[in-house]
Specification:
By secondary structure, the chain is mostly helical. The chain has one domain: 434 Repressor (Amino-terminal Domain), CATH 1.10.260.40. 67% of the residues lie in helices and 0% in strands. Helix 2 packs across helix 3 and helix 2 crosses helix 4. It is globular and about 35 Å long.
Length: 87
């Protein structure tokens, strides 16, 4: 399976969806149940979103294209999910 993970595209999708919804990073974070710093790291490209986080952001911003930007078979997303469970 080829990974469709594209962190640069994901960061732009999140920022654009947030802008279109008229939300601050803090508002999006609250609606998605994540921290504002996570939103900032995703938008800066410093952090990739797991498929679960991408789905939360998509629902919170009413932007389904975000959910399709992270892939379950992605080694980056898988690594981040394992780290989150270990913490």
């Amino acid at each position: 399976m080829t990974c469709r993970h594209r962190p640069l595209e994901l960061r732009h999708l999140v920022a654009l969806a947030r802008f279109r919804a008229g939300m601050s990073q803090e508002m999006l974070a609250k609606r998605a149940g994540v921290s504002q710093s996570l939103i900032a790291r995703i938008e800066s490209g410093e952090r990739a979103a797991t498929p679960e986080i991408a789905a939360r952001l998509a629902r919170a911003a009413r932007a389904p294209e975000i959910a399709g930007a992270a892939c379950a078979g992605c080694p980056v997303s898988g690594y981040l999910a394992r780290r989150a469970k270990a913490a």
